[in-house]
Amino acid sequence: MTSISIIIAIFNRKDELFELLNSLSRQSDKDFEVIVVDDGSKMALLPTVELFRESLDIQFFRKENSGPGLSRNYGARRAKNDWLVFVDSDVIVETDYIENIKKNLANDPADAFGGADKAHKGFNLMQKAISYSMTSVFTTGGIRGSKNAVTRFQPRSFNMGVNKEIFLKIGGFSEMRIGEDPDLSMTLWENSYTTKFYDDIGVYHKRRTDFGKFSKQVYQFGCARPILNQRHPKYVKPTFWFPSIFLVGYIIGIIHYFVWDNGLIMALYGLYTLMVFVHALIVTRNISIASMAIISTYIQMFSYGYGFLKSWFKLNILKQTPREAFPTHFH
User: Fold this and answer.
1) Distance CA 216, CA 218 (A)
2) Phi, psi at residue 176, to the nearest 5°?
3) Angle between the 180-190 and 211-231 helix axes, to the nearest 10 degrees?
4) Digit-coded pLDDT (tens) for 302-315
């Protein structure tokens, strides 16, 4: 019989915690525990947890701040069940989330699994636009939102399940603060464990609420990728360079246009922009979201691409260690 422990590592986000716990309290399958790990928040989270004592089997722990990965490890060591399911504090789950996890594990077993993240109908337009760009085939290749988008799925910590025994055996999440979830997925692969995508366990992920925060977030993701490539060279792909090539190509296109009066390159970017708009319009059925999706797509490509280039240069040209190059990326 499948037994599940939901682990939530959280820093502040009191309102989001309430919404997540509320969605967990409405599950069709009530047989699971919840572990909330307060990672040194500056606001009191225990009163929010206390609201759900009667409706959830819930534990609360508070510790000094160490980042999400080590806080998840802290919760995992205190879990009483065989399966660990990690969700970000800014997600909402559907009522059949636990039920569907158990069905999938029974019918299509794996050592670790994940699901999609998507935009809830109640999210604002910017959140929906950012959700589109983070899951679109034109930016990420759809790797976060579709079973058929990739041949090998990397579960991400916003919606990730791992067998507890295996998780503890490989040491859990590493010392990385950024990129710790793909790092875990590739560590699982290197130890011959299987990962799978389950279609029907998607979560509603709130994302960032403004483009500035979103830009900073994807920039950090870009910085993390060359570090991951160094840690897991077997899984390096040429497509990781795409956002950086996109950024450099755009700069070259601007120069071509203003210096040599040649608009061919910018015309290609115009075509790409049109394709993003049309695809976003089809997916979201909202012209405002589709228009904002163009902005979020370019922010994502430029910020990630710049972060990737900066990190690659530091690691491969300056020969810095990851900790020297990005000390805040590690515990």
Assistant:
1) 6
2) -70, 135
3) 30
4) 999 999 999 999 99
